[in-house]
Amino acid sequence: MRQQPKEDGVIMYSNASAGEFLTLAPLGLSATDIYPAFVFGALTYFIIVFCNMLVLTTIAVSKKLHKPMFILLFNLPISDMLGATAFFPQLLLSIATQNRVISYPACITQGFLVHFYGTGNLLILTAMAYDRYTAICCPLRYNTIMSQNNLIRIIIAIWIINVVIIVTLFVLVVRFKVCRTNIVDLYCNNPSLLKLVCEDTRLNNYYGIVFIFVLQGGPLLILIYTYAQILRTCVMTNHTDARRKAIQTCGTHLVVFLILQINTTFTLIAHRIEGASPFIRRALGVSILIFPPLLDPIIYGLKTAELKQSMLLYLKRNLCPIKL
User: Fold this and answer.
1) How many domains does the chain have?
2) Which helix (H) or strand (E) holds 106?
3) pLDDT per residue as tens digits for the range 257-286
4) Residue 306 has what DSSP assignment?
5) Looking at residue 56, which CATH number applies to its domain?
């Protein structure tokens, strides 16, 4: 690739971006921080993978968990591990080599997986909210509405919608040639990739605005409606135990949803505000890839009684030594 003279600190390139190397935002680690940061990052990634695999395996092997609620939940650890794997291995490599350089194809791949994870989580959590609404507000019709065929259709729709939206998002990005090489975030994502472009990105910006309103506003409206109906039903019911269980299950779901929703919304908006603090934007951006994958299996595992009991039974059966 032929390098052109620098203009205002920006290196201009004349050919396509496919062979370009980009530089991610510095981690700001001192020499004494490298080893603890690597150990902490590796341990966090191990915990994320272990906890999510535990939830996956428990749901897969426990027949009593083969219900719509848990089958929908089964998709969440898959998405969480995808997001964590898009971020942590590259981060750990950067810490170990003290090198923040990443190839353009690798950056596109990381950005694609990060957005695929975030969108997938929102869609899965929205489907789970609908499932809880149906179970609590329409119990007599629940088995009909959430039948096996309908459940399969919902899951397939989640992943097809996710693929179509994110593929379109990144097809609009890769059509450009980059004229800058510095990624403004700690990992690659659509907004930071667009900031490498010197061409007209209005179509991308319009799509991004629609993306934010549809994927952030749509699930939020569905959540508000379903939880308002659930709260109304719980207040009207005379069964104290049923009310307690419903509120506990829905409260767990609400916490998980809001953690992802708030962080994602503020991160995307911060990219569109000139005066937004880069530190806060990066901190919120990283938190999206750490806290949901780390907290989702822990929150659901501790707060969902059936899943908790099955997980403990699975661990006892497989980790405890066999007594002769």
Assistant:
1) 1
2) helix 104-137
3) 888 888 888 887 888 787 778 888 888 889
4) H
5) 1.20.1070.10
